Amino acid sequence: MRVSTARKIVALPKQGADYLPLEPFAASLPRPAQTQRQQPRPLAKLPTSVVLRSLAVNYAMSSPLLNSVSMAVLRRAVHPTNALFDTAKNPLLRFLLRAFAYDQFCAGMSPGMVQRRISGLKDMGYRGVILCYGKETVIKGGAASTQDKIKSLMYGPQETLMVEQWKDGLLKTLSCLGAGDFLAIKVTGAGPMALDALKAGESMPAPLQAAMDEVCALASSQGVRCWLDAEQAMLQGTIDEWAIALMRKHNKHGVAVMSNTIQAYLKAAPANVKRHVELASEEGWTLGIKLVRGAYIDTDPRHLIHDTAQDTHNCFDEIARGLISCDIPEGGQATFPTTQLFMATHNAESVRKALTLQRERVEAGQPCALLEFGQLQGMADDVSCELLEECGHNSGPNAPGVYKYLTWGTLTECLGYLYRRSLENKGMAARAGELAGAMGNELWQRVKTLKF
Ligand SMILES: Cc1cc2nc3c(=O)[nH]c(=O)nc-3n(C[C@H](O)[C@H](O)[C@H](O)COP(=O)(O)OP(=O)(O)OC[C@H]3O[C@@H](n4cnc5c(N)ncnc54)[C@H](O)[C@@H]3O)c2cc1C
Q1: What tens-digit pLDDT sequence spans the chain (452 residues)?
Q2: Which of 118, 126, 24 is nearest to 392 (CA)?
Q3: 343 Cβ closer than 6 Å to some ligand 1 atom
Q4: CA neighbor of 261 nearest in space, from 181, 386, 374, 349
Q5: Would you identify the CATH topology of the domain 109-414?
Q6: What are the φ/ψ torsions at residue 339 (nearest 5 degrees)?
Q7: Which one of 341, 347, 405, 423 is most buried, counting C-beta atoms within 10 A?
Q8: What are the CA-CA distances from residue 222 to residues 101, 184, 257, 286, 359 (Å)?
């Protein structure tokens, strides 16, 4: 069905830290004739087991007390100092973390389990997944010391082996993926060689560069795209440089084999995006941007981050607008680079604005970046399912793809990721409560109609 550009766009509530219901977004978009007559139930796509677990997990996350307890348990489990918090020694802890955290937020422990999870998601209508290997390195300390800088020049077989193991993890992850999927790469996972070079602002060490080139070449041959995750601010400047070097090398023929992540909560984000656009345009490579708000607000220096959540929302939406409409710097430049924009967000208002703008531009025949959306596994299923509905109705070549971000690995390997999820969910009690309510309604509909 064609979408009318003359449709009325409903006024939305002001963005804020609180949960924004997706209903106004859904209401603003046209629907096929038969769905206009009935109440849409996007969550009907979810298996009942997922609805039940999501209801339990989001209900727990909406309680500040339960949230604090689970955060404290996860923090201790990441670096256990006694058997009580050691998942290898405490079977009850292992069972609880698996049932209420791992199964909700992670993809599986083996490639076979992961592939089953991925095909389930594709059957639901997702264009693909973004897969990440859960093993991570936790960084302690501040900026690089002279010792770090010297260290970065003299590594032994141990550090080189860590890079090899990290690369093997990426290749194993790639083996679970097919054409259209994404591989998410956390460069700090490569160990001290990566960390010291990042802290010292050096170019990518040779073993790391060789590993990345191998991964990019294999990904490209499989039709998989990659992105570098954004990390703490003290490393991010160098991650940007590494990502640009990789895009320059691998993003040819209109495909962003590599993308960089831009954190819109940073005051410097708009200038950073402009620099990316200008470099891609001058040097003739395809620009891949994954746009996020930013996950390190509790640890990054506060002065680098926008003063208010509303400033972050405005910055995120303005960068998205500029990239979608090829209008950076504002007023436009003659040759805007081919751009692929991945909006990684759970914010319904940002999703609605981007989708509306993209549709209007496509219909008007105006230039437009390739647009894709993604949410984390176990979170924002209401936003994802609405997007599946809306994007599913538009099957043209410009229809935005919808993706889920999955982390895989053993329970122990994924504990750091799960702890970060719990930290991030700390300020989202209201949103978790809304989602628990939506899951409860969905469950009630199934009970009433006896359809499970
Ligand atoms: C698929 C996917 C991939 C991701 N990858 C990364 C990644 O590589 N690196 C990374 O850092 N994050 C990543 N994130 C997390 C992301 O940065 C956000 O933390 C998270 O998605 C919540 O933001 P939101 O856009 O969903 O919107 P909302 O939940 O509406 O916004 C919350 C965000 O607003 C910002 N904010 C909140 N309060 C304030 C305040 N007082 N002042 C300024 N800003 C404030 C923070 O960034 C906070 O996370 C990813 C998220 C997704 C969905």
Answers
A1: 333 333 332 333 344 333 333 444 334 434 444 444 456 788 888 989 889 999 988 888 888 888 888 889 999 999 899 999 999 999 999 999 998 899 999 999 999 999 999 999 999 999 999 999 987 654 444 444 545 544 555 787 888 899 999 999 999 999 999 999 999 999 998 999 999 999 999 999 999 999 999 999 999 999 999 999 999 999 999 999 999 999 999 999 999 999 999 999 999 999 999 999 999 999 999 999 999 999 999 889 999 999 999 999 999 999 999 999 999 987 766 789 999 999 999 999 999 999 999 999 999 999 999 999 999 999 999 999 999 988 876 667 778 999 999 999 999 999 988 988 887 777 677 788 888 888 998 998 898 887 77
A2: 126
A3: no
A4: 374
A5: TIM Barrel (3.20.20)
A6: -130, 135
A7: 341
A8: 31, 15, 11, 18, 29
Closest CA to 212 of 237, 263, 247: 247
Sketch the domain layout of the chain as residue ranges. Answer: 109-414
Centre a 10 Å sphere on the Cβ of residue 340 and count the other Cβ atoms it contains.
20
Best residue among 133, 235, 293 to mutate for probing ligand 1's pocket (most ligand atoms within 8 Å of CB) is 293
- Tell whether the torsion through CA atoms of 345, 350, 355 and 357 is positive or negative: negative
**Ligand 1 contact via 184 beta carbon (within 6 Å):** no
**Three-state DSSP class for 359?**
helix
292 CB near ligand 1 (under 6 Å): yes
Tokens representing 19 are 């949960």
